[in-house]
Amino acid sequence: MSDVSEVSSLPWATQTSSAIGLYARWSPELDAKIAAATERLRDAAAAHGAGAVQSTSLGVEDMVVTDLIARAQLPIAIATLDTGRLHAETLALVPRIREIYGLEVAIFSPVQEAVIEFVRREGDDAMRKSIELRKACCGLRKMEPLSRMLAGRSAWITGLRREQSGARAEVAFDEDDGQGRRKLSPIADWTWAEVWAYVEKFKVPYNPLHDEFMPSIGCAPCTRAIAVGEDFRAGRWWWEESSKECGLHVKT
């Protein structure tokens, strides 16, 4: 592997291989942010009950939200999307959540017949042929399963943060998702350093690919490590000029 300072654009890059060692910095504000995020989750559980679900990507931010839910012993369901193209390291977190927290993670997968037909028609690398085909692939593998995950729900909880990208700079703690549900992002104001400081203090399990300079991890063919000067989401669909979104967090 190249020297970290040559492949990571994030702060404090040294030759340390652990994301915790690279990024974790406890801020004076973090205790208050943890308390505020926990209170937002308590309010969500009280307001929505069984109508609330955490939609987790199993990325580090979502693992922090799961940890907050577990520590507060909140009755909030947890669910994830298995697109069929995720890294093994990502999927390995599902049994880890069960082992550590005693929580089950509901898994929503794409309709297999639709995926087979799409691949037969467009090929395995359709996402690289055009933005339209990439979004069509995301639609099959993410958007359709998400619609089933959210069916009958009144609120969903995410690990979105304002620092993640320009497109997410205005992420609200609580907003309408455009489909009549509340969309809650309890750690929207946390920094990358604070996320990792929390992980370090509370020993939150995380995807080891984060140690490989992948701050944003999606499907395996569509994720790479970031380099010097690149944004958090630059490793997603790096071959295209776009907003680096699949549609999951675009209000319609």
TrEMBL record:
Keywords: Cytoplasm, Iron, Iron-sulfur, Metal-binding, Oxidoreductase. Its main location: cytoplasm. It catalyses: [thioredoxin]-disulfide + sulfite + AMP + 2 H(+) = adenosine 5'-phosphosulfate + [thioredoxin]-dithiol. Pathway: Sulfur metabolism; hydrogen sulfide biosynthesis; sulfite from sulfate. The active site is at C246. Its EC number is 1.8.4.10. Belongs to the PAPS reductase family. CysH subfamily. This is Adenosine 5'-phosphosulfate reductase.
